[in-house]
Design brief:
5-stranded parallel sheet; 17 strands; single chain; alpha/beta; 300 residues; 6 helices; binds NADP nicotinamide-adenine-dinucleotide phosphate; 7-stranded mixed sheet; 28% strand
C-alpha cells in the first residue's frame, strides 16, 4: 500500500513524486513509456527559470535522478483502470497497486492528421518528433504539417539539417507566436504551403511524398519528400479515467488550480488538466500543488 500512486513520469508526475518523497510519503510512479513525457523530446529548454539552457532529455534525466535518489520507486507499466475505494486501486497491464491517494499526470499525446497512408508510414518516413528523428534527414527534403508553436519550431529546427523544408498549414496565418513566425521567415530553405491540407501520404515502400490540396484555389499538388513531421497538436491521455473522473469537452481532467478532481483523494497535475497554459513551468507547478494537496488529504 502506497501513500500516493502517481500515474505518469513526466515533469508533473516526477515533481509530485519529489515533493511527496521529501514529505516522507511512500510513492510509486507508474510510467507507460519513458520518463520525461513530452519535454524529453525538446531539443532545448531555455525558458525554465534559473536554467540557462539544457536539452529536454537532460532535464528529464536530472528530475528522474532526483526522485530515485530520494528512494522513489518507478515502474514501467501501462495503467488500464483506476478503482475508487478505500484503498484506491490502480490496475496496470502487469499488476495492481493499492494506494491511499492517486495523482493523475498522464499528459498528452500527439494528434494524428488522419490522412491516408499516415498510420502505416509512421516510422517509415512519418514522424511526430523532429528532435528525435530530424537527424535522419540531413541534406534531404522534409515537410512539417501544422501551424502551432511545435510545427514552426520543428520547421526551424529541421531547416538546419535538411536541404529543404516545406511547412504545410491549413490556414494562411500561423497559430504560433510571432517571434517564431519571424524566425521561420528568415530561413531561406523553408517554403510555406498555406491554406493547404494533406490528402495523402504516398507510400511506395516508404514515404515518397504528400498529396496536398489548396482549399482556396482547389489546386492539387504533389510534393516529393524524404520525411514528414506531423505537428497538429495534442490530445489528453485521460480516457481511461472517464468512468469516475469528470473530464471536460476536450477530454482533459476538470480541475482548478488546486489540482483536486471530483473524487476525494484523486488529484491531477500537468498537461492533462483542463487549463490554458501548458508549459514545463506550469507542469512542475501543478506537480508540487497536487503533491501538497495529496499530503494534506493524507494528513486528514
Ligand atoms: P497547437 O497549438 O494546438 O497547434 C496545432 C496546429 O495544428 C494548429 O496550427 C492547427 O491549425 C493545426 N491542426 C490541428 N488539427 C489539424 C488537422 N486535422 N489538420 C491540419 N492542421 C491541424 O499545438 P502545438 O503546436 O503542439 O502546441 C501545443 C501547446 O504547447 C500550445 O499551448 C503551445 O503554445 C505549447 N508549445 C509551446 C512551445 C514554446 O513555448 N516554445 C513549443 C511547443 C509547444 P489551426 O491553427 O488552423 O487550428
Amino acid at each position: 500500500m502506497y501513500d500516493i500512486i502517481i500515474i505518469g513520469g513526466g515533469p508533473a508526475g516526477l515533481t509530485a513524486a519529489l515533493y511527496a518523497l521529501r514529505a516522507e510519503k511512500s510513492v510509486v510512479v507508474i510510467e507507460k513509456l519513458g520518463l520525461g513525457g513530452q519535454i524529453a523530446l525538446s531539443s532545448e529548454v531555455e525558458n525554465f527559470p534559473g536554467t540557462m539552457k539544457m536539452s529536454g532529455a537532460e532535464f528529464a534525466a536530472n528530475l528522474a535522478a532526483q526522485v530515485e535518489n530520494l528512494g522513489g520507486r518507478i515502474e514501467y507499466e501501462e495503467v488500464v483502470e483506476i478503482i475508487d475505494g478505500n484503498p484506491k486501486t490502480v490496475v496496470t497491464d502487469l499488476d495492481r497497486y493499492e494506494g491511499r491517494s492517486i495523482i493523475i499526470a498522464t499528459g498528452v499525446k500527439n494528434r494524428r492528421l488522419g490522412a491516408e497512408g499516415e498510420e502505416e508510414l509512421i516510422g517509415k518516413g512519418v514522424s511526430f518528433c523532429a528532435v528525435c528523428d530530424g537527424s535522419f534527414y540531413k541534406n534531404k527534403t522534409v515537410a512539417v504539417i501544422g501551424g502551432g508553436n511545435t510545427a514552426v519550431e520543428d520547421a526551424i529546427y529541421l531547416s538546419d539539417i535538411a536541404e529543404k523544408v516545406y511547412i504545410v498549414h491549413r490556414r494562411d496565418t500561423f497559430r504560433a507566436e510571432n517571434r517564431l513566425v519571424r524566425a521561420l521567415a528568415e530561413r531561406k530553405n523553408v517554403e510555406l504551403v498555406l491554406d493547404s491540407t494533406v490528402e495523402k501520404f504516398v507510400n511506395e515502400g516508404g514515404l515518397k511524398g504528400i498529396d496536398v490540396l489548396n482549399a482556396k484555389s482547389g489546386e492539387k499538388r504533389h510534393i516529393a519528400l524524404d520525411g514528414a513531421f506531423v505537428a497538429v497538436g495534442q490530445i489528453p491521455q485521460c480516457e481511461i479515467f472517464r468512468d469516475i473522473i469528470i473530464l471536460d469537452e476536450g477530454g482533459y481532467v476538470s480541475a482548478g488550480e488546486n489540482c483536486r478532481t471530483n473524487v476525494e483523494g484523486i488529484f491531477v497535475a500537468g498537461d492533462c488538466r483542463n487549463k490554458t497554459v501548458r508549459q514545463l513551468t506550469t507542469a512542475v507547478g501543478d506537480g508540487s500543488v497536487a503533491a501538497l494537496a495529496a499530503i494534506d488529504y493524507l494528513g486528514n
